[in-house]
């Protein structure tokens, strides 16, 4: 497959749960145009959805006056996704979820979003914004050379 | 934006003669699905519904909040000495359920026939 010409797509979402599906669809469309395998598109969709849910719930605290920005930057063999919110960002990573601890009531049943993001894409980093605002998560997913 | 979660319950019998309660879900499984997922499960009679089969065939989207509802159900089922199995997940969500460890507490099958044959 020839190298994909660079392109950027931006989407703004209201801070309302459910609108993460708009970002999922946009990311999936761009990934398919780049030639990603369908299983990697599914990985990307879940990672983008979880990043948007975190931005809506924790970053913007469900304040519908604030929006979540999603910037999809496609180029070469990788797709980078930035999900931006108006929260203070995360300064430390939560512990990896443990199903045994959850089943025994030692940790809550939630808290798997960041784990899924990290497990499903090639790179994931959380960046704290300047003056405690405009934080973002940056995801990168790469085309699988062997599958091309 | 999220499609409403629908659920209904079927009573089946496995080829081995065991009664099996099937919870069939349709739509998205997300934070708004509490009544459809946990509510439907909690309405089952704990004394008789000992084998529970979750049907995800018509589910397109499951997020981490939806997975948390499934885990909450597994916790309650474990406390009530019920066994939970599932079928109909896409390849992607089979991978996700495996990654988060749900397969340790709920056996996954490709389809209903395979699940019933194993019960």
Quick rundown:
Chain A has 148 residues and is of the alpha+beta class. Chain A has four helices and five strands, in the order E-H-H-E-E-H-H-E-E.
Largest contact between chains = A-B, 30 and 27 residues
Report the span from N to C terminus of chain A.
6 Å
**Total domain modules of chain B:** 1
**Contiguous uncertain segments of 5+ residues of chain B:** none
Please work out how many helical segments of chain A DSSP would assign. Answer: 4
Question: From N to C, what is the helix and strand string of chain B?
Answer: EEHEHEHEH
CATH topology of chain B: Transcription Regulator spoIIAA
Percent of residues in helices of chain B comes to 25-40%
What is the chains' assembly state?
A: heterodimer
Main pleated-sheet profile of chain B = 5 strands, mixed
| CATH superfamily caption of chain A | Histidine kinase-like ATPase, C-terminal domain
Mean pLDDT across residues of chain A: 91
- Describe the main β-sheet of chain A briefly: 5 strands, antiparallel
The percentage of residues in β strands of chain B lies in 25-35%
Which word captures the global form of chain A?
globular
The stretches of 5 or more residues of chain A where confidence is low (pLDDT under 50) are none
What do these coordinates show?
- The complex is a heterodimer of chains A (148) and B (119).
- Chain A has a single domain, classed as Histidine kinase-like ATPase, C-terminal domain (Heat Shock Protein 90), CATH 3.30.565.
- Helix content of chain A is 34%, strand content 28%.
- Chain A contains 4 helices and 5 strands; from the N terminus they run βααββααββ.
- Chain A has helices at 20-34, 38-59, 99-103, 113-120; strands at residues 4-14, 67-76, 78-85, 123-127, 135-142.
- In chain A, strand 4 and strand 5 (135-142) form a beta hairpin.
- Chain A is globular, with a radius of gyration of 16 Å.
- Chain B is α/β, with parallel strands linked by helices.
- Chain B has one domain: STAS domain (Transcription Regulator spoIIAA, 2-Layer Sandwich).
- Chain B is built from 4 helices and 5 strands, in the order E-E-H-E-H-E-H-E-H.
- In chain B, strands 1-2-3-4-5 form a 5-stranded mixed sheet.
- In chain B, helix 1 (34-42) runs parallel beside helix 2 (64-79).
- Chains A and B meet through helix 1, helix 2, helix 3 and helix 4 of A and helix 2 and helix 3 of B.
């Amino acid at each position: 497959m020839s190298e994909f010409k660079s392109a950027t797509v931006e989407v703004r979402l209201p801070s309302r749960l459910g609108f993460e599906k708009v970002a999922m669809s946009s990311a999936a469309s761009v990934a398919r145009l780049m030639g990603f395998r369908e299983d990697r598109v599914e990985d990307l969709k879940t990672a983008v959805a979880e990043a948007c849910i975190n931005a809506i719930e924790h970053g913007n605290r469900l304040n519908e006056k604030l929006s979540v920005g999603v910037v999809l930057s496609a180029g070469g063999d990788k797709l980078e996704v930035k999900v931006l919110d108006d929260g203070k960002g995360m300064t430390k990573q939560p512990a990896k979820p443990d199903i045994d601890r959850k089943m025994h009531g030692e940790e809550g049943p939630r808290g798997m979003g960041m784990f899924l993001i990290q497990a499903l894409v090639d790179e994931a980093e959380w960046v704290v914004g300047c003056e405690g605002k405009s934080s973002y998560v940056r995801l990168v997913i790469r085309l699988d050379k062997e599958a091309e | 934006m999220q499609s409403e979660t629908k659920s209904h319950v079927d009573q089946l019998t496995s080829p081995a003669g065991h009664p099996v309660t099937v919870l069939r879900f349709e739509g998205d499984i997300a934070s708004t699905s509490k009544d459809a997922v946990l509510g439907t499960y909690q309405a089952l009679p704990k004394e008789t519904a000992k084998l529970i089969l979750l049907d995800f065939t018509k589910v397109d989207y499951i997020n981490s909040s939806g997975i948390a509802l499934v885990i909450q159900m597994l916790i309650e089922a474990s406390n009530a000495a019920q066994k939970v199995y599932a079928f109909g997940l896409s390849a992607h969500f089979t991978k996700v359920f495996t990654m988060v460890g749900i397969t340790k507490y709920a056996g996954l099958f490709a389809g209903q026939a395979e699940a019933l044959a194993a019960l």
